[in-house]
Amino acid sequence: MTTPDPSESRPSSKVPRTERGRRTLRKLLDAAAIEFGERGFHEASITGITRRAGTALGSFYTYFDSKDEIFRALVDDLSGKVREAAKNTLQSDLPALDVEKAALTGFLQFAREHKEIYRIIDECEFVDPDSFRQHYENTAHRIQERLAGGTRKGELREGLGEAHAWAIMGMNVFLGLRYAVWSEDSSVEDIAELASSILREGLAKRPSGQS
Amino acid sequence: MTTPDPSESRPSSKVPRTERGRRTLRKLLDAAAIEFGERGFHEASITGITRRAGTALGSFYTYFDSKDEIFRALVDDLSGKVREAAKNTLQSDLPALDVEKAALTGFLQFAREHKEIYRIIDECEFVDPDSFRQHYENTAHRIQERLAGGTRKGELREGLGEAHAWAIMGMNVFLGLRYAVWSEDSSVEDIAELASSILREGLAKRPSGQS
Question: How would you label B121-150 residue by residue, b for 16+ Cβ within 10 Å and e otherwise?
Answer without folding.
Answer: bbbbbbbbeebbeebbeebbebbbebbeeb
